[in-house]
Amino acid sequence: MRAFVLDILKTIIIYTLLCIATFLMSLTILQYSSFDEHVAFLQYKQEYMHIVRWKIAFYIHVFTSIFCLIAGFTQFSKHLQTGYPAIHRFIGKVYVFNILVINFPAALIMAYYANGGFPTKTAFMILDCLWFWFTLKAFLDIKNKNFRSHENYMIRSYALTFSAITLRSWKMILSAATTIDPDSLYMINAWLGFVPNLLLAEYYIRMKKNFILSSAESVSKNDPGK
């Protein structure tokens, strides 16, 4: 009964976060749907607005990253995995294609032109390359039926996908709590947007591994045949 209640609570928390994340991303998309070149973030990118590849990469990233967020979130549903495996696989392919083919090159271009100098560019380059690698590794693992590794790399991949939300959250916090200049704030925000996510993902993976090992040991000790 306790496990059932905890599972229900986990589901409620997960989908509440999904709704909040989707809402925040939708607000971001709506800001740019008019293609006004002087709105929100674009106010700080006026020097790059004439660069066609940057502009294309920006709008591709803005209008497609929300699908990574939604698709990735649904992939952790055990109900979907076991009850509707075909849908799980289809959404997974959409998630992988969106990151590897669409968002990786777009985000790489944006990272190259990031504000805040070398430290900020480095942060976004690392984020983008890790995002690509974790997603590719998860895809290769499932092709090779390495389910445990696939799940772990999907957790890492989604931790970086969720940086779209944590990046904006940290920006609001830092803007309200500090008076540092915009470029320095953006540099700090670039690292805070994904490093804590990765640390939490690794902690969760480690805790899950320890739980599986301890459960296996407990079953082994209680096995009357041994």
From TrEMBL:
<dbReference type="Pfam" id="PF10067">
    <property type="entry name" value="DUF2306"/>
</dbReference>
<keyword id="KW-0472">Membrane</keyword>
<feature type="transmembrane region" description="Helical">
    <location>
        <begin position="52"/>
        <end position="73"/>
    </location>
</feature>
<feature type="transmembrane region" description="Helical">
    <location>
        <begin position="186"/>
        <end position="205"/>
    </location>
</feature>
<keyword id="KW-0812">Transmembrane</keyword>
<feature type="transmembrane region" description="Helical">
    <location>
        <begin position="12"/>
        <end position="32"/>
    </location>
</feature>
<protein>
    <recommendedName>
        <fullName>DUF2306 domain-containing protein</fullName>
    </recommendedName>
</protein>
<feature type="transmembrane region" description="Helical">
    <location>
        <begin position="94"/>
        <end position="114"/>
    </location>
</feature>
<feature type="transmembrane region" description="Helical">
    <location>
        <begin position="120"/>
        <end position="140"/>
    </location>
</feature>
<keyword id="KW-1133">Transmembrane helix</keyword>
<dbReference type="InterPro" id="IPR018750">
    <property type="entry name" value="DUF2306_membrane"/>
</dbReference>
